[in-house]
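Figure caption, in words: inputs first, then the predicted bound structure.
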Amino acid sequence: MYTSKISGLGSYVPENVVTNDDLSKIMDTNDAWIQERTGIKERRHIKKGDGNSTSTMGVKAAKIALERAGLTTDEVDLIIFATLSPDMYFPGGGVRVQHMMNMNTIPALDIRNQCSGFIYALSVADQFIKTGMYKNVLVIGSENHSGGLDMTTRGRGVSVIFGDGAGAAVVTRSEKENVGILSTHLHSEGAHAKELSLEGPSTEHWVPEIIAENPQEDIPYYPYMNGQFVFKNAVVRFSEVINEGLQQNKLQAEDIDMLIPHQANLRISQFVQKQFKLNDDQVYNNIQKYGNTTAASIPIALTEAWENGKIKEGDLVVLAAFGSGFTWGSAIIRW
Ligand code: UT7
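Bound structure (oxa(dethia)-CoA present):
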């Protein structure tokens, strides 16, 4: 029986820093509101012409992860690309990465699970490795949110939260027992699909129809979020799915060395931290610098935590996410 472990991590964020004060110049918002409600101080936005897109950022993160794993592109067996903001409606980002990295005609799979996209992608990689089908899987989470946000006062409840960036992990076959990805836990509840969504343009809601149905000033091309409802569900599901993972592995909260929650809102992370009675060194947050980067948030945070020496061999690392769908999940990893 094979096990799977993360053998390399990488991340990339665009250089362009957008502070809360920058946003307050283009919409009715302010630094105090944003920091108090979300913990965010600044985020990165792609600047037109800087060469960044969802897939190019994914490539930059992937190259770092592969180098750290000591692998060449020829050794990758599968690409899994998680995003809610692909460069184009179809095809997805995975095939673009395959082309840009001059890879063999290996399979490329896109995952559409928004904030929990990276956990879903990691789980798929884990299954392919544990069955023996593949040896090295390149998992990427990348988002270009700034390309599709309503940057006016109308969109402030959503647009101040999200940022751009990418993270990547190489998942590799191991023959050591009880190390690497111990288990992953995935859930969904489609009854709440519309509570955090972007409905059109889509096949149910195509452009002429949207324009005909809506006054010009209220065209729903932008993401919608029922913030308080999402928040209430998030804190419950985060805790449930972390507990599920701990129980399956006969572990306790005090066994956690590092919890990396999806960076949705610093208040959510703090709530979860309190529930599990973890101290500040046991939870990694960087939403203050990058905002919510959806499928990229966990791999960016995981990469940073590892780069800063906060994750050591033998540590119990717990990843958890909740978001649009609703979908949520956790991964229990022995580093
Ligand atoms: O990653 C996927 C999962 N996403 C999440 O987990 C997000 C969960 N939700 C949240 O993080 C919070 O609900 C938000 C940060 C989105 C919003 O915080 P809130 O405390 O729930 O605020 P609210 O939406 O209830 O709005 C409170 C007030 C409203 O004004 P009134 O109606 O009280 O006069 C809003 O219009 O704040 C106003 N507001 C703003 N004011 C300044 C909303 N956005 C802004 C803004 N700046 N950017």
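Residues 29, 33-34, 37-38, 115, 156-157, 160-161, 227-228, 230-231, 234, 264-265, 268, 292, 323 surround oxa(dethia)-CoA (CB under 6 Å).
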